[in-house]
Amino acid sequence: MKPATLMVSAAYAAQGVGYAAVVTALPAAKDRMGLHDAVVAAILLGVCVAAALGSGLADTIAVRRGSRTALCVGFGVQCVALAGISLAHHLPVYLAAVALYGLGLGTVDAGSNMQAVALQARAGVPMLGRLYSVFTVGSVLGALLSAAVAALHVSALTLVGAVAFVQLGLAAAGRRWLLPTVPARDTGAKARAPLPRTAIWAVGSLVLVAYVLDSAVSTWSTIYLSDGLRASAVLAPVAYAVYQATVLLTRLATDPAVLRWGRRAVAVAALLGGATGCALIVLGPTAAVAVVGFAVAGLAVGAVVPIAFAAAGQLLPARSDEVIARVNVFNYAGAVAGSVVPGLLGTGAALRFGFVAPALALLLVLPVARRLRPSVP
To answer: Where do the Major facilitator superfamily (MFS) profile domain residues begin and end (predicted)?
Structure first.
């Protein structure tokens, strides 16, 4: 594996590990700070808002210094933020560190996608599917590390502090090994061509609906099985586990599938598969059927997100970093909508109707998927 490919892969993995460590450490932070559930929900919303600002920060840096610098700055910000989250014992300090983490989260999300698109363009073959699979593996690893730390009776916040050193190492190594992309300012691209705003909104809608589904499953799958279908404490978390497994397998298969059938066909099939999964969740009479539905729903998130960002990189290659930064903001809008909307549509057994919204959203963007370029040039 070439150094640049290894570094970009490491960036995706570290992002997954870091986010999983922060999320799984929320109960420990809740106990340390004496937080209520409403405050935790507000914190997660604040992270999404700060991450959207971080995507803008990545855009600003990439235009002037290139995406390599943007990604390294993002990891540097995360390092400081994770250290603050780990060490904070007072609520204002903790909240400031979490906000800073959100800023770094968005900067790294955008910067890693910029680097991935540049890497794919250099290789001439689809690569975002496998890179996103590395992110998924990193998330699983982060969750397992958190469980291992808990088994040793060590605070999960200690793991967050350890991950800070990982982010610091990537910020330093990235200066040498990440792709040295040419800033848009130096190419004169800003003066030559305006950003394709309509196309950005179209591709962004694919990212939006994928993260609406992802956030809905992440937030509500276990609650629905437990409260709505009266599944056992053993079975209830299985839905999210099989969903993540499908997402991972789909991401591993996305690049070969795009090479064989084209980006358009794979995206359409994934959207239809995701909508079918949501239908099984809504209509399924038993927990077993719902678990199958969650697994099938993972097809959409697994394939659509990498395909959408790959398409974004081709909308205006001379200004691809700026395009990707803007498309990346749809990620956080979808995450907020997916975590809130299902709970507003029903509770208990009626929570199943909360998954009608993601299903409709997936079907509504089918015309966008049908207009994607069929393959990587």
So the answer is: 200-377
